[in-house]
Amino acid sequence: GESVGLHLPTLSVQEGDNSIINCAYSNSAxxxxxxxxxxxxxxPQFIIDIRSNMDKRQGQRVTVLLNKTVKHLSLQIAATQxxxxxxxxxxxxxxxxxxxxGAGTTVTVRA
Amino acid sequence: xxxxxxxxxHLIKTRGQQVTLRCSPISGHKSVSWYQQVLGQxxxxxxxxxxxxxxxxxxxxxxxxxxxxxxxSSELNVNALLLGDSALYxxxxxxxxxxxxxxxxxxxxxxxxx
Lengths: 111, 114
Fold this sequence. Notes:
heterodimer; A: mainly beta; 6-stranded mixed β-sheet; 5-stranded antiparallel β-sheet; B: mainly beta; 7-stranded mixed β-sheet; 4-stranded antiparallel β-sheet
């Protein structure tokens, strides 16, 4: 079946460095992608989204890049802070009302 | 403004019992979706409701059912609980009415089945 997946389950980054979290998707019909952050004991928190007619979108300290040719999505976090430690999920929406999530990447920020 | 709220926060049940989980969407949002998140995995889609009608259903057995009320709040019911139903149940709301609206999640209900 088609699914969304992340390349690496864990990422350790030094405080102040930039983080890059990658995600591969296989549903070519997906036209909407979202990154969520989930802290322990909490629900997923919306970070940033991008639609398939865009290649890049920037938010506050975050940038999402979409490469439709290779079906790849990435989240870049600038100047990573301790509060950025969490599990990050990419999710795709193929226009059928549901979000399909990958397994997540656990980001740990080292002081 | 209040976000998505869910109750209860935690719940412990035994096999074979039934459970009802509740969700109130963000004010102004008319669509509610339910997801199951097993420990260590991403959320899995169960249902989406809009204007009290089911718009989407994931690959879950008929033991799972839901409904939406006129005030757009929603309930998820699970009958004949199994050990494997232990999970975090998440509710998400979205603004109408497209199929790709951004979904905002609540804190979840942690269900433990013994």
